[in-house]
Amino acid sequence: MAAVISCNSYSPLAASKWINPTLPTKASTFLATPKYNPHKHVQCKLQNEQKGRPFSLKECAISIILAAELITGIPSLDAYAANPPLPDLSVLISGPPIKDPGALLRYALPINNKAVREVQKPLEDITESLKIAGVKALDSVERNVRQASRALKQGKMLIISGLAEAKKDRGAELLDKLEVGMEELQQIVEDRNRDAVAPKQKELLQYVGDVEEDMVDGFPYEVPEEYRNMPLLKGRAAVDMKVKVKDNPNLEECVFRIVLDGYNAPVTAGNFVDLVQRHFYDGMEIQRADGFVVQTGDPDGPAEGFIDPSTEKTRTIPLEIMVDGEKAPVYEATLEELGLYKAQTKLPFNAFGTMAMAREEFENNSASSQIFWLLKESELTPSNANILDGRYAVFGYVTENEDFLADVKVGDVIESIKLVSGQDNLVNPSYKIAG
C-alpha cells in the first residue's frame, strides 16, 4: 500500500450521541428500515489536512427509559444521569465500560492467566494517564510502566507456563521483546517525550495480545452439530475494508482494519469471511449511515441476503452469542428470551465500530449477509443497558480508523474487503466448493 496521510481529522459524528436510531434490522422488517440499495497501522487518504429472573420494578423502569431513548432518539438518559430518580441504576451497569477494541479483543480470548492480565492492565491504563494535560501525564505513565514491568518480572514463568506447548518458543521471544520495549518506554518517559508514549504503548500491547493468543491451544469447544458443516472461523482473522468516500470535503478514501473473533462467534464470523472470499461485498454501496449505525450487505434484486449458488436459496445463520463465563455460545435465542437479563456478553457493543449482523426483528435466525457497525457512546448507553447486547451477534471490531466510520455516507462504495490474516482458521469454506 502506498504511503498516505494518517487519519487525524475531526469527525463530529464520532463524538456525538445517537441520532434518531432505528434498530439495525434487515430490509423487510417491522421497523420499516428502507431498502438498502492484526496489526499494521492502516491509514486513509485525505483531501486536506483537517480532520435467570424477571426484572424488578426499578430495573423495568430503567429499561423503558433506555429503550425509549434508542427508539425515539430523544436523549432522555442525560437528565437521569445527573439526578437519577432510581438510586440503583448500577444494577444494569457493571462499572466503567472498556471501549478500546484492542482491549475488548484481548479480554475476549479464551484464556485464564492472571499473570499476563496483570501486565496488560497497567499498559492499557496508560491511555487514561495520557488524558492529563501536558508532561504532567508522564508521572502517571511512569507509574503504569513500573507496575507493568514489576508484574512481568514476577509473573514471567507463570505466563510462559500458560503458553500452548507448540507456541512456547514464540511466546518466550515475544515476552523478551516486551521486556525490552518496557525499558524503552521507561526511557521515553524519562526523556519527557510525551508524543512517543502512545506509539510505544500500542507496540507493547500488540506483544501482549500476541502472547495471549499463543496461550490458546486449539479451538476450545465443539460447534453444535446442526451448524458444524457451515463455514466456521475457528480462531481470529483480520480484513481490510477499503471504502471510496463520495462528496466529502475531508475524506477521499479510507481503509478500515477489522479483527474478526471466531473464538466467540465461529458461525457468524465464518459466514462473513466466506462471503469476503467470494468478493460478495466488493463494489457494494453503504446502504445506511444515520449516526447510529453504518450498514451494508443487501444485494441488488429481491433477495435480502446471500443466495448460495449450490442451493439457490438464501443462506441464513443462527443468532450466536457468547456469554461471559460460559465455554460455548448460545444459539437461536436472545439473552432476554433466555432470562439472562444481567448476563455480560463476551463481545459487547462497547467500542465505536463494533461489528454485528443485522437480522429481521422477530426472526432470530434470519441473518445472512447484512452487517452493521455501531457508532456508539458507551457512557450514554452502557453495555447490557442498550437493548443491543444479547440481541444481535457481535463478531468483530474495527481496530484501525474506526472514528472515520462517522464520515461514511449512504452511497459510498466498498471498493474491496480483503482477508489479510487468519485464512487457515476458516473451515468448510463454501467458496472453494462452489467456485
UniProtKB/TrEMBL annotation:
<keyword id="KW-0697">Rotamase</keyword>
<dbReference type="InterPro" id="IPR002130">
    <property type="entry name" value="Cyclophilin-type_PPIase_dom"/>
</dbReference>
<keyword id="KW-0793">Thylakoid</keyword>
<feature type="domain" description="PPIase cyclophilin-type">
    <location>
        <begin position="258"/>
        <end position="435"/>
    </location>
</feature>
<dbReference type="GO" id="GO:0042549">
    <property type="term" value="P:photosystem II stabilization"/>
</dbReference>
<dbReference type="Pfam" id="PF21329">
    <property type="entry name" value="CYP38_PsbQ-like"/>
</dbReference>
<dbReference type="InterPro" id="IPR029000">
    <property type="entry name" value="Cyclophilin-like_dom_sf"/>
</dbReference>
<dbReference type="InterPro" id="IPR023222">
    <property type="entry name" value="PsbQ-like_dom_sf"/>
</dbReference>
<dbReference type="GO" id="GO:0003755">
    <property type="term" value="F:peptidyl-prolyl cis-trans isomerase activity"/>
</dbReference>
<protein>
    <recommendedName>
        <fullName>peptidylprolyl isomerase</fullName>
        <ecNumber>5.2.1.8</ecNumber>
    </recommendedName>
</protein>
<dbReference type="InterPro" id="IPR048563">
    <property type="entry name" value="CYP38_PsbQ-like"/>
</dbReference>
<dbReference type="InterPro" id="IPR044665">
    <property type="entry name" value="E_coli_cyclophilin_A-like"/>
</dbReference>
<dbReference type="Pfam" id="PF00160">
    <property type="entry name" value="Pro_isomerase"/>
</dbReference>
<keyword id="KW-0413">Isomerase</keyword>
